[in-house]
Structures
1.
Amino acid sequence: MASLTARALASLLGDWRSSSMPAYASLADRIRLLMLDGRVVSGTRLPAERDLAQHLGISRTTVTAAYSEVREAGYLESVRGSGSIARLPGRGPLMSEQGESALFDFTKAAMPAISGIADAASHAIEDLPRYLGEHGYDLIGIPPLREAIAEQYRRRGLATSAEQIMVTIGAQHAIALLARTLIGRGDSAVIEVPTYPHAFEAMRGAGARILPVSVTVEDGWDEPALEQAIRRSSPAMGYLMPDFHNPTGRTMPPEQRERVARLAAQHGTQLLIDETMAELVIDDIEPVAPFAAFGEAITVGSVGKTVWGGIRIGWIRAEAPLIQRLFRNRHAGDLGTPIIEQLVVLHLLADHDRIIETRRRQLRTGRDHLVGLLRARFPQWSVPDVAGGLTTWVNLGAPVSSQLTLAARAEGLLITAGPRFGIDGAFERHLRIPFGYTPEEMDAAVDALDRAWRSLAHDVPAPVDELSVVV
């Protein structure tokens, strides 16, 4: 059973106090949010009440009352000899029947399935018999799909052969496999903050010592900090999402890609480039070549964002020797990618241009609708312009993201607090809001956010001169 120390929990809690609530209630709310966000995993043993009280500098009575409230809400279980164990209470479907209170799930930066999947599946079934005489445990990908993925890279200006492609069970599987293969326990790894949280989890799970480097809406990547981290530590891996970065929406310019690739090569750092958002271009902007066109890099992609998250097909593009190494290491985690899903994606890639253009129109409509709503309803928020991707990274103007998330849940909206994308409780001033939903769903979500925000209005700190908080 995993255990959380008082120091670790205090770090995750961040600035948990609320001026409008008793201390025990504020602490209980924040602990519950950490469980809902997945930052405290179900089954984890929480620190003893005395230890947490001492570390937070509060009375044990306050912690006891907070734990009691969390326990009564169904998020904590007392086990004799094991202490207090985190639990997630069961709940029904996210969208309930009409007439009941509905929960809208805005925790996913994703879209509904693209049209044509059923037809592609029908064609895949027709193709399946030619593979039924084989064992079906495919650890590298069927040759036609590997070639089709390589062709997509060639069309984007990056020479690629089928031998450089491994087909995986989605992009997250690819990231975890690469982390497990390339990171040794105690190795350092560079990762952006904010970042895709499951990439951070994969690297931490592989035993990496994390070196965070900032990415902001205003300035993009903190290149001096990135350079310092690589020069001082020669990290084993660097995880970057240079195309419509999740969650900020930033894209790394070509000249910066070239400098970062050159620096990483000089210090033996293998760059893992997440391109899952790369094709989700909304505005008419100058296309940027894949990162690997500027220097050596391992690339991860998938159809989860462009086609549908329900088709679990991703891939790794790397030099052939690394692909073979990954092939040898893969058995420990899985026994291959389903053949039928590979065949479905093979047929969908033949319709690639139509799919991307459809998504572009959908995302432009969604982005314009959401940004307009947010700017009209929340003039005190800073809502950035984004040229692609699936999300906007909103600055709330006050460190209340976790409070707002909990209040929104009470109003029927599930949305992820800013600290979920950071390390050690950072980004309380930010909220990631996806725009891959219908206008009607976004209207309902913004209505819920508006009610939640107004419920916090008396507890939101007054704006602070931005110059006083620059660090």
2.
Amino acid sequence: MTTTLPLSQHALEALAKETMHDRIVGCLFGSALGDAIGLYTEFLSGETARLSYLSQKFTLYPRSEATPFRRDAHRDPNVPGEWTDDTDHAMCILLSYLHSDGKEMNTKDFASRLHIWVRMGLRALDTLPLGLGRTVGSIVRSKTFLEYPEETARIHWRNANCELAPNGSIMRTHPLGLMCIHKSLDETFQIAADYSVITHADPRCIISCAIGTALIRGLVRQEIYNEEHIDEIVSKAIEWFPTYRQRQIEKDSSCKGDPELDLEELNRHVKVGNLTELELDDMYKIGYTYKTFGSGIHLLRLAMRALVSPESRLSTQKTIFEPLITNLIMQGGDADTNACFAGALLGAYLGYKVLPLHWRDGLVHGEWLMKKAEGMSVLLGVGQGTYSGVQDKDTAPDGGRGWLTESQMDEKVMLFQADMVKRAQERDQQEKSERRQRAKRTSWLGGFGGRAQ
């Protein structure tokens, strides 16, 4: 027997808005945290990841106690708690939307912001374009990109024999799911596709983005709360795709010869028994979009299964994000992107309030991200207060900081490299001091009641 709560319409709406607000913020932070934690093992094999982080425990806060990175050329440019290009690209979409006060989703504006990022980094945060992927870099640097982004991406894909299906678009499209909470499902699929083909024209990339974006939308709207709902979204996306493809052919007849979507392969990644089936550290397919897509959906399924039991639902909800993300990144591979997408899904499902504090509070640009998340919530009608994206200088294409000349960029890179050297020297000294202290303790313990062997 179910009991109906005697709440007024006003109380029900307030409760729904509060939950949606928590999930919107949770989605953005969950993704950024997955990205930041994933950097610890990005591009490592699972075995190397386990040898590099024996405790398999990570902390970002307090920052003085943050887990140090494995020392190598890939991680040396970053400090713990920083997100990567994955979240930067998502921020380009978010800032574009905020700048229009939520009135417009403009793919051309996003393409322009992506072009700016490749040359100057994220201007709003004055950061460099670290971690630029080959696919995005090649396409965005093309002379035709700004005027014809989709066509440029399609030519690049066809020049590679239509074989490239990297994860560079699925990692950035989670903000679209938030922007689409007032859109229909078909509109959501189409918007996700429109943003994917800016750089990723392969059908596998498009369907991954469409499903991922629709899942975020449904999770925030509280319409997706069990595995059957996940499968329904996948089925509806598969039904939608042929109509989308026909529209593409009508717009550009050359699309008729493009490969069909392999539904068997898609469905294999929609339902996996465990993460090892995905072979996430297969270096020949490390950035394959279905690996990111499959791992994210698998983690969402695991979270839903864990929350089935009413006896432990609350305690599980408060603790499950960390072990799921940790287990994912310990598989190695493109760990930051995999955890970025999975973190967005989990954050949209679990909410911001239950994200681990020793991760959440150590996010380097956390305060900045919170302001943007709150602004978005207001524009979507679920947050309190007021917000004007037009008046928020951060949302301008130049981030309110102006443009950098080539010489200024060179100087910025030199200063960054000098800071890297300084941080490396400081870490050398710290590690040397720790070795001395360990040696002293060992010597003292050996001399206390010890005997010659």
3.
Amino acid sequence: MVSALRRIRDATVGTEWEGCVYLVGGAVRDRLRGVRATGDLDLAVLGDAVGLAEFLYTKGIATTWPATYGRFGTASVRIGRRTVELAQTRSESYAIDSRKPSVKAATLEEDALRRDFTVNALYQNLHTGEIWDSSGVGLADLKARLLRTPRDPDITFHDDPLRMMRAVRFAVLLEFEIEESAAQGIRRNAQRLKVISAERIREEWTKTLSSPKASRGMRMLLDLGLLAQFAPELLPMVGCEQGGYHLYDVWDHSLAAMDNLSEEAGWRLRLAALLHDAAKPQCRTWDGERYRFFGHEDEGEGLARRLMRRLTFSNRDINRVAALVRLHMRAGSYKTSWSMGAVRRLMRDAGSNFAELTTLVEADAKARRPSGKRPDMADLRRRADAALQPVPTALWSSPLSGKEIMEALGLTSGPEIGRLKHELAEKVIEGEIAPGDKEAALKALVEIARKPA
């Protein structure tokens, strides 16, 4: 037994809470699966859960005064390194346009009905160790790896539509299947996702994207009608044929690229793989021989930014994914004949995303026909490493500041100064001027200034 649970059990022997505290949810599910529980611990309390939390603090078990939510009869405490959530057994009812429930104290049986899936509605008495399968099928569903709702799925998903996104996440992360009546319930209630905040949808989506099996989750989101609710701009990818050296339509190609990433790849790189060709449907033209997709990387950057902004991703994450989408064609066009200047420019423009960019290009190329040409990313990485040895990218800039350029040429501030700084930086990248060499930069500045803009 986890240390935090053992301490709670021992502290409550002989109190009103003895025999009335149950471990429930993912911790029970995972322990029965033989998986160590590492997240928060959820306790269902037949009685005063807030009072129990305060009792644990006064006894020195909890290290923090409980954060309480009186409306819901819940409290949260820290015990050692674990967060323990305590909730009075309750029933819930929901207004049609909200996912915030009205609650009242209830029996353990009624509490079980508000759970999302039968495998998460398994209760273990903290004092006796007894497992109570509230639905009667939870243990069987766990063995069969099935996600089934403990009551009519229309009620479960209508009451809390985020459970539909959670069903996909659990199916992917736990490698379970969604039971057919539950899947049908999701399809019928998919539009209820509109009452969920963008932040909550984003959290569930990124958790699914974090899995090495994320492509399965994307297929499920599409099939269950959920993707259409929060990312409708991705639907045209389905059935958009590409021809040529491509094996699949845009949707299946993008999912194949996701599959080609390593298990260690993060959700941002997986999202970039999903979105890298997302604008191809709107850019597709026919030249009489084959389909063309001119500019899809630039359009795709805009699509990625709009989608991620709507789902309240951070600016840092938006910029990172958008950069990968924008640059994937440029990096994918790499040839060993590129000059070192071209390599340095790509490194400069990709910045800290350079390594992930080369990984994305490799995953993209592997998702095409084996006979197609594949850019040599290993060679690009080798040359990039060589470029960094004498000079880090931070020094691939103009040796002269804007003020120094104005003083040298007798100019005032304006767009021309920016242009001249850019020209000097280009000469550094090409190796014509050594990084930080102001004397050489001044000589070059005079020549640049003589040429028309």
